[in-house]
Write a structure and sequence with these properties.
The structure is a homodimer of 354-residue chains. Chain A contains eleven helices and 15 strands. By secondary structure, chain A is α/β, with parallel strands linked by helices. A five-stranded mixed barrel of chain A has the order 5-8-6-7-9. A four-stranded mixed sheet of chain A has the order 10-12-14-15, covered by helices on one side. At the A-B interface, strand 13, strand 14, strand 15 and helix 11 of A face strand 13, strand 14, strand 15 and helix 11 of B.
Chain lengths: 354, 354
């Protein structure tokens, strides 16, 4: 079997504003290392998957960014969606493209904006997942929760299947929406629930069967797109006619042979500046500092200085992110409210800052 | 009698960093209005004093700034000190320059970095002070304290003298250093103590007598400087040889005929960003905002945005000052500690930011 990576790099995360912008979203930023999240995503699977087997599906306007950041990926394997239609269409599209090239292809669907510190274990899990996928399962990686997060969906594990590559594997009982805190606490306590990572592994032929069953219109429309080609004048309108659908809703919750491999790899989707702070190494004052900073009595804060000197006095648990044209200051515990700033900018039609 | 203003514009206030810089200190900034503090200082006395009678004594490197900001003042009346030597030398220098031009000159010594909202009452006090000065008193304006400030010197009033221009006048009993809080509270309660404004009014011939008595070496040195002229090669070394001395210590505390006119005019020396906040008009969220700001749950804060958008969430009682190359963030109650940032910049020899 051939292994293939389908990197989904079409997101436009706003919770990391002002660094993440519509023209330059999260996955193209060097948030946690010298490399961008997209580059990290590729490097993480590079030991498993030859570069000729890597596809990146992104927004049309980001195709050049992807090519610049991952110049070794064959040009025709960087595909620009005319508009975002959720995760289901690009995953099915990739399966259609692989169908003729490698009927036994096992594909890893990998969002481009995750941080996974323990890469070795992650790759072990991908190999395990590819083995389970070869038994005609749709496989997902479930992250062992470390706190009662209410911002993620959860996966409830069912009966155990055979171990794969030394890792436990379970049937999925059900997918659960973002829970209220009490529910999340129950999930955490039970040990039987895992965060939905959005990482999926399946054979191309298997997922195409599932699309035929549960999303027949979408599959037919995608067949049309592939046969007409991405250069066709009709591409944009054909794509626009697709229904917006996620893999979770559109396929995984409906399908029957679904497995989850629990994983404890320090996974983080960097959903906010506070989440990024939690990921990073602290200095002696428990700060995470990038750039030119002078702190007096400044603790447990995330400071991103761009070119300017950032001087802080008496800050604790704060986020300061300075960019060329915009500056954000907020307590870490309000980091989710960055969305409110972005909403206000949209209301003001202040597109330069979006 | 002719009235003359001697504006002292040589300060290099650091507590308003990062806007106030060594190359562009507080008095040259438009902190409270469209006009700079120097311009405000001049405009405030312009109704009383013809422009030909206004002198500005500043640092050498600021002469061009003064001329640019006050272009109507005769060029020869903008005098650049080679180095700062306290307030005593420039005041005596001005008196020497006026001695021949107008032996009865009454001079107002006016720091260039004060805010005085009630200008009408202030000018009434200057006229009163000029009358008292004509009775051979050294006169100072004492600001009625509104809280137990520990950052100012105080003046204790003694026996009352005759009213002048409708205002009370007292002999000065003594000048007091910056007090501890308990003392400041006593001063406030007694009603007999006033903040030392650093504004002085006297006849040129009278102050020269006092310098002859209490600062004879300084006076002799200044006579030499005036006779040799400010263009002389010797100016810089002659000036450098002067002792560092303030009017308060060097003259006022020693002299005998010293009077104070109490004044309640909303005076403020803008000694910190918090002091500036207190001066300014607030918006509906009790913020003082300059420039492009989006605030979510942001209250009672001072926000100075330069060119960048400043977005804040959940801030209360904070100071944010953004400039081209440096950004300050601190709680208002820590505004005095801006000095620590400046000290650290000096330690690092980061002169670009000083």
């Amino acid at each position: 079997m051939g292994l293939y990576a389908i990197i989904l790099a079409g997101g436009s995360g706003t919770r990391l504003w002002p660094r993440s912008r519509a023209e330059h979203p999260k996955q193209f930023l060097d948030l946690v290392s010298e490399r961008t999240m997209l580059q990290e995503t590729y490097e993480r699977i590079a030991p498993l998957i030859p570069v000729q087997n890597v596809f990146v599906i992104t927004g049309w306007r980001y195709v050049d960014d992807v090519r610049a950041q991952l110049p070794y990926i064959p040009e025709t394997q960087v595909i620009g969606e005319p508009e975002g239609r959720g995760t289901a269409p690009p995953a099915a599209l990739a399966a259609l493209l692989l169908r003729e090239r490698d009927p036994n292809a096992v594909t890893f669907i990998l969002p481009a904006d995750h941080v996974i510190p323990d890469e070795q274990t992650f790759r072990t899990a991908l190999v395990a997942a590819s083995q389970v996928a070869n038994e005609n399962y749709l496989v997902t990686l479930g992250i062992t929760p470390t706190f009662p997060e209410t911002g993620y969906g959860y996966i409830e594990a069912g009966e155990p299947l055979s171990d794969a590559n030394g890792l436990k594997v379970f049937r999925v009982r059900r997918f659960l929406e973002k829970p209220i805190l009490e529910k999340a606490q129950e999930f955490l306590a039970s040990g039987n629930y895992f965060w939905n990572s959005g990482i999926f592994i399946w054979r191309a032929d298997k997922i195409l069967e599932e699309f035929a069953k549960y999303q027949p219109a979408m599959r037919a429309q995608l067949e049309r797109i592939v046969s007409e080609g991405f250069d066709a004048a009709s591409f944009s309108s054909n794509w626009g006619a697709l229904q917006n659908e996620t893999l979770d809703y559109g396929i995984m919750e409906k399908a029957e042979r679904v497995a989850v491999i629990p994983l404890d790899v320090g996974w983080n989707d960097v959903g906010s500046w506070a989440a990024l702070f939690d990921l990073m190494e602290r200095d002696a004052s428990d700060n995470v500092v990038h750039g030119n900073h002078i702190g007096v009595d400044t603790q447990s804060s995330y400071i991103f200085a761009n070119k300017r000197l950032v001087a802080t006095i008496g800050l604790e648990n704060m986020v300061v992110v300075d960019t060329e044209d915009a500056l954000l200051i907020c307590p870490k515990e309000r980091a989710q409210d960055v969305k409110k700033i972005v909403d206000e900018l949209k209301r003001r039609k202040a597109n330069d800052y979006l």
